[in-house]
Specification:
By secondary structure, the chain is an all-alpha fold. The protein has helices at 2-26, 30-51, 65-81, 85-102, 107-117, 125-137.
């Protein structure tokens, strides 16, 4: 009984965080949306470089989702501590996405987050910067604005 109560509280907190993030995106202009989308693409590339797992394929590696949430949260906190919240935002997109892949009740909100990211114009300079970073660092970046993770496609 206690575990069920605790799970419900935990799920509610995660849902509230995702809803707050979604509301911020809904109120954002296209520059902010494009920057967020570009940062999410870059965060996915960095994560894959470090772990070998593609965040775009998170639906297929269920056993590692809990540790992935911890890793993403640590990245977010590190950037926030360093006073670089603009670097944390891409990891926030993935934190909510991975949580939703773990907890189906969060999937609708995560899908709406990706709907908001779809508002980014594909020719925005933020994506050009991601391509430049990719070329400079050798990081394999999938710079395809509008690509979504498996199981988070537009309905």
């Amino acid at each position: 009984m206690f575990k069920r109560w605790l799970d419900k509280k935990f799920s509610k907190a995660q849902s509230d965080e995702a809803q707050h993030f979604l509301q911020m995106l809904k109120g954002a202009n296209t520059d902010v949306i494009a920057e967020t989308s570009a940062r999410a693409i870059l965060a996915a590339a960095v994560f894959e470089e470090r772990t070998g797992n593609s965040l775009f394929q998170v639906a297929f590696w269920a056993d590692e989702k809990t540790s992935t949430v911890v890793q993403l949260a640590a990245e977010i906190k590190k950037f926030q501590r360093e006073g670089k919240p603009q670097h944390a935002v891409g990891f926030m997109v993935w934190l909510h996405t991975v949580r939703a892949a773990t907890f189906p009740e969060l999937k609708a909100v995560a899908r709406q987050i990706w709907d908001e990211l779809d508002r980014a114009p594909s020719d925005h300079e933020a994506f050009e910067r991601v391509d430049a970073i990719s070329k400079k660092t050798g990081l394999s970046v999938l710079s395809n604005p509008g690509q979504r993770p498996v199981d988070f496609e537009r309905l």
